[in-house]
Structures are given as C-alpha cells and as structure tokens.
Design a protein that fits this description.
The chain is mostly helical. Among the domains are: about 55 residues; about 110 residues. The chain is built from 9 helices and no strands.
Length: about 240
C-alpha cells in the first residue's frame, strides 16, 4: 500500500511531471499567443486579433493531440463504458444520487414563479414516476426475498426492466432539460437581439418629411400697428378748442 503524500510532496511530483512533459511546451505556446494578442489588440482591431488567437490556439491543440490519438481513443472508450455501466448497472449510491437530483430539480422548478406550467408539470411528474419505479424495485425484491446488494437488481428480468426504464427516463429527462435551457438562454436571446437591432435600423432609415415649407409664417410689424392705432384714436379736445 502506498503511503500518504504530504502537500509539499504532491506539489513536487506534479511540477516534476509537468517539466518533463510536452504539456509545458503547449502551455508556453498558449501564453505566447495570449501575450501577442494583448500586444496587437492595442494597434489592430480587437475582434480580428481575438479570432486569430483562437484559431492559432486550436491549431496548436490539434497538432498536439495528433500525437496522442490512440491514448485519447482508449480514454473515450473507458469513459463511454463507465457511463453505460452507470446507466444500465447502477449501484445503490447512484440510485440515491438520481433521486436527490430529481427532487432538487422538481423543488427548484416549483419554487420559480416564472417557469412555464408545462415545465412545472413535467419536472414534477417525471421525478414522481422515477420514485414509483424505484419503489416497485424495492417491493419486488422484498416480495421475492431477494437480498438488496450491488448486483441484486441484475438477477431478475423484472428488476432489470424496471431499472432500465427508470434510468432511461432520467437520462432522457436531463438531456431534454439541457436542450430546453440552452434554447431559452442562448438561442432565443440571440434571436431577440437580432430583432431589436433590425428594428433600430428600420427606425433610423425612416425619413421625416420637411414640413417647414408647408407652414405659412405670418409676420406682424408692430410699428405699423402702433401707427394705425394712433391714427384711429381721437384725442379728447380741450374746452378752449371746442369753442
């Protein structure tokens, strides 16, 4: 049995492995791209520099990954196998985690007043259905006097069917929720932004007709009015003039 390592020893072995690995070259190249992007962004269009930096980083990562294609295939096979084992051969801990996640999603959805009614119904009905299926598994095992352990679910076709139905429903439900949230928060926001921008452009293109020419301006000469009023007014005559 390997002895427990201290924090200093963990850091020492990690640094040693990094220095002796080609990953260090990858890190140095990525840092160089970042520094060049920061330098050129002050004199060139920032969007252009950003796109060039992303493309250069992807090219470096691809060339680096070509050397480890076989290892990556083995890694992906192991991950896929493990995922399938979790779906089709879940342990008691995975059963518990599935139930906890289901009820957390249900509670959060019901607590959110802005969620749509159809989503609330789905996020309530599916966890309850999964719970009933797990209860059916436990009840069948108690009735058939099957010992509850890591492999007991896979000893009977009925248990296997209930288990696969519950886990399949859970996986399909989670994938659907992810797609729905991505559609709501990313795709629809982008579409709304485009619509708003197009409406702004349409408003800017509207030409306001020149109505100044159609207005009849009336000019009033106050001096002339004063003279006319003075002529029309008859001054009172004195008594000596009246005689």
């Amino acid at each position: 049995m390997m002895k427990e390592l201290s924090l200093l020893q963990i850091i020492k072995y990690a640094v040693k492995a990094l220095v002796n690995s080609q990953v260090l070259v990858l890190i140095i190249l990525e840092l160089a791209i970042l520094l060049l992007a920061l330098a050129f962004s002050k004199v060139i269009n920032k969007k252009l520099v950003k796109n060039v930096a992303i493309i250069a980083s992807l090219i470096i990562v691809v060339f680096y990954g070509i050397n480890y294609v076989d290892t990556l295939k083995i890694f992906m096979d192991n991950v896929t196998t493990k995922v399938m084992e979790i779906i089709y051969f879940p342990s008691t801990l995975e059963f518990l985690i599935t139930m906890i996640i289901s009820f957390i999603i249900m509670i959060v959805t019901l607590a959110n007043k802005n969620e749509k009614t159809i989503l609330k119904v789905a996020n309530t009905a599916i966890p309850i259905t999964i719970s009933f299926l797990f209860l059916c598994i436990i009840e069948y095992m108690n009735g058939a006097e099957i010992e509850f352990n890591e492999f007991s679910v896979f000893t009977e076709p009925v248990l296997m069917s209930l288990n696969e139905l519950a886990m399949g429903l859970f996986v399909a439900w989670i994938i659907s929720l992810i797609i729905y949230k991505v559609d709501m928060r990313v795709i629809r926001k982008v579409n709304v932004k485009k619509i708003v921008e197009s409406e702004v452009l349409d408003v800017e293109e509207i030409t306001i007709p020149d109505t100044q020419e159609s207005k009849n301006l009336v000019t009033v000469n106050l001096d002339e009015l004063d003279e006319e009023e003075d002529e029309d007014l008859e001054l009172p005559k004195l008594k000596s003039e009246a005689k």
